[in-house]
Amino acid sequence: MIKDNKMYSVEIIGNTDNVGDPAYNLLLSQNRAEAIYDQLVLNGINPERLSFNGVGETNPLHDNLTDHNRQKNRRVEIIFNKK
Question: Does pTM top 0.90 for this prediction?
Fold first, then answer.
């Protein structure tokens, strides 16, 4: 899909749950997003179309009260932006 839609840039955002040190979670989320970026580049996506960022635990989809919800908060989001 990314290869076929060259009129879009792609933003990769890494997220974590709130378990652990916030500074560590921020680094973890950045590494998570960068890993996806690296794989996309290895698979032929022009790196000029890609950006990545980690936001740590600042943007949960669910509360972090259960293992199930924390698992859902540990994710990478891919956002398509029209150039």
Answer: yes
